[in-house]
Write a structure and sequence with these properties.
By secondary structure, the protein is of the alpha+beta class. It folds into two domains: about 170 residues, HIT family, subunit A, CATH 3.30.428; about 150 residues, HIT family, subunit A (2-Layer Sandwich), CATH 3.30.428.10.
Length: about 325
């Protein structure tokens, strides 16, 4: 059983998941080695190599756990958390712990091993976003869970160990510190000005425009004013809403369109870098509808986080957001 343990100094929770020692290539320092097509468990015809699917989209029908799917969601074979059991919160002297209850799933984005999210069509990307939504709506019914994180690691440098394009979902029984800090910052802004800080950012950026990369009817892609990483880019809906899973279909359509455009420009400008993509959405354990604004954050892996960043929490970014936005605007996808 995985455990959640709380640091008594910072209040930070960590997951102790010893079962993940069984993962292929664990503790190897050569992380560039990824599982390729010949051994890929995500390719059609190898459905028996994954746990049974919890969701699949099949345009032409077909049986579960068989070929013929367009998007497939399965439990992670080496989960950081497990669904079965109770939280059993308890103290050990000054320490606090609980069982590692949650969900850890893999969204297999395409049956084609060689496709990337950038090379997929807009309707295909929209199906991936719809899978995110459908799994969130299902898992939020579990009262043990408080927050769902969806993320994509693309490339070995970003933490991916399988080449086949996929995202991951982890549902947690706590709200992570980073999410809490972001929401508290939004609450402070709202308490002072009675406005959403993200809406204020959008209003200013759409007037000044030096950091706007692209936009369409529903979504804006921009380089944030104080980015941690070179070419970090946010995708924000123009309409205020706190929950990704409640977005109307036209927003998913336009998010897919702008995400494809952004990834194509990043690939061309930066020579197909590894990247992390994260969905930022409100915890479903509390009401943040007035103060929070869902969005996606894309972070190309162009530099490494080292001692200064770990020791101070400050990030050194060698590229200004104005320059990053200018470069990405100039690229023709």
């Amino acid at each position: 059983m995985p455990e959640l343990r709380k640091d008594p100094v910072t209040g930070r929770w960590v997951i102790i998941s010893t079962d993940r020692q069984k993962r292929p290539n664990d503790f190897r320092f050569d992380r560039a080695a990824t599982i390729g097509r010949d051994q890929c468990p995500f390719c059609p015809g190898r459905e028996s190599l994954t746990p049974p699917e919890v969701l699949s989209y099949r345009q032409h029908g077909g049986s579960a756990n068989r070929p013929g799917w367009d998007v497939r969601v399965v439990p992670n074979k080496f989960p950081a958390l497990q669904v079965e059991g109770t939280l059993d919160r308890e103290g050990e002297g000054i320490f606090d712990r609980m069982n590692g209850i949650g969900a850890h799933e893999v969204i297999i984005e395409t049956p084609d091993h060689g496709r990337t999210l950038a090379s997929m069509s807009e309707p295909e990307i929209e199906r991936v976003l719809s899978a995110y939504r459908d799994r969130m709506l299902d898992l939020k019914q579990d009262r043990r869970l408080r927050h769902i994180l969806i993320f994509k690691n693309h490339g070995a440098a970003a933490g991916a160990t399988l080449e086949h394009s996929h995202s991951q979902l982890i549902a947690l029984p706590i709200v992570p510190d980073f999410v809490r800090e972001e929401i508290e910052g939004a609450r402070r802004h709202f308490a002072e000005k009675e406005r959403c800080v993200f809406c204020d950012i959008l209003r200013q950026e759409l007037v000044d425009r030096p950091r706007v990369v692209a936009e369409n009817a529903d979504i804006v892609a921009l380089a944030p004013y104080a980015p941690r990483f070179a070419f970090e880019t946010w995708l924000l809906p123009k309409r205020h809403a706190s929950r990704f899973e409640h977005a109307p279909r036209h927003e998913y359509e336009n998010l897919a369109r702008l995400l494809k455009l952004l990834l194509q420009r990043v690939d061309r400008a930066l020579e197909r870098p590894a990247y992390n993509l994260i969905v930022h959405t409100s915890p479903f354990s509390e009401d943040t509808s007035e103060v929070y604004h869902w969005h996606l954050e894309l972070m190309p892996r162009l530099t490494s986080v080292a001692g200064f960043e770990w020791g101070t929490g400050f990030y050194i970014n060698p590229t200004s957001p104005e320059e990053a936005a200018r470069v990405l605007r100039a690229v023709k996808p």
